[in-house]
Amino acid sequence: MVSRMAKGSPTVSEPTYFILASLLDGPLHGHGIIKQTLELSENRVRLPVGTLYGALDRLAAAGLIAVDREEVVDGRPRRYFQLTDQGRALVSAEALRMQQAASVVTKRILRPGSAFS
Amino acid sequence: MTVVTEHRADTGAGTGVLERRYRRLLLGYPRAYRSGYGGELIATLLDTAEPGRTVPSARESFALVVGGLRTRVIHATERPAWVDGVHLGVLALSVAQLAMLVPYATTVPLWAGLSALAVLLIMRGLVRLALPVVVLVAVKVCAITLGLPWLDRTLLPVDPDRFWGGGSLYGGGGPVAPMIGYALAVLGLLVLTAHGRRLGTRSWFWLPAASLLAGADPAGLDFPAAGGSHAMARVALEIGVLLLAVWAGHVAHDLRWAAAAAVYLIPVLAVYAENLGMHSERDVAHLAVLVLLTASAAAVPYRAKRHVLL
């Protein structure tokens, strides 16, 4: 998967962006990621569990996240995921890209004399 | 390292019902994935469910079905691509060949039975055993299409059972297309046998597919003789399976499903070539859809590699 990524330029979807962002402060398990994603996106990104684990599998295969540790709660295993350096770099680059894209608009609409200011 | 920590609070009988229903939805995931991560998924599903809920939400159910299919597709890529593609293509072909014989089962029970046995053996990955069975059926089919009494005495033409109606066996087209179909199946089995390694087993989904295809004559054109519900069921199933092949190629960036579709398409092309000039507009549209979907299954893995969506 990593070698596949090298061939193309990955596009980060909004759910993936918030999953990666939710792991910036430290490792989280599945339910923790869902809660954090919901909070960071101001209730916009509500991940179903099937979608979340599919995304986590893809991100782990791409080397962007890794399993930090496992715990057993009520007899059931629970994995904690953490960002890898590659994942941290990707989400940072994506944030900068969006910031630059946003500034194209915000610089204009917030300019003194603009119709929106 | 695994650490045992807190205990989940007892959440009552409703949770037991919900957990059973979630477990049923998880059956879409491969067995190995379920045994590794099924417990974790169930725990997260129960943690995120609203209190008092006993039925999974439509949104969560859909995500689990798609997630299961996607995981199956990814797991399938652990097998060598070309071997898997040929195996899948030969299985699809043998299912269509069995479906062809089903309406005539009471007149040619031995050959319909052997064809069903061939499907079962191919489905279970036992291609070495399937090869002689397919060769026998192929010889008999050639005999019927040529009007020769090879292997046993079969009164020609072979008419269908009353339930099915329709024309006589291989009466709707020439002998070349069925021969190409069986030659391709035998060739595929020879290649898989020569490869030597044990093949994986295939889903039981393929058995009901044979009954859905039955009654639609793969040796002739579908629509000139009134088409009917059998032909429509066959076309709908073909399109559904080919759409899955396109999706699987996109998800896994892999050509095996396109290879399987191409194996299935070759005898269909032979039918059209053998009946050149006799096609209705719907026949041409049918062929165009099959070719387009097969080409898409071949193209999407390349596109998906260039535009990686995370």
UniProtKB/TrEMBL annotation, chain B:
It comes from Streptosporangium minutum. Keywords: Membrane, Transmembrane, Transmembrane helix. The chain crosses the membrane at residues 101-122, 129-150, 170-192, 204-225, 231-248, 255-273, 285-304. This is Uncharacterized protein.
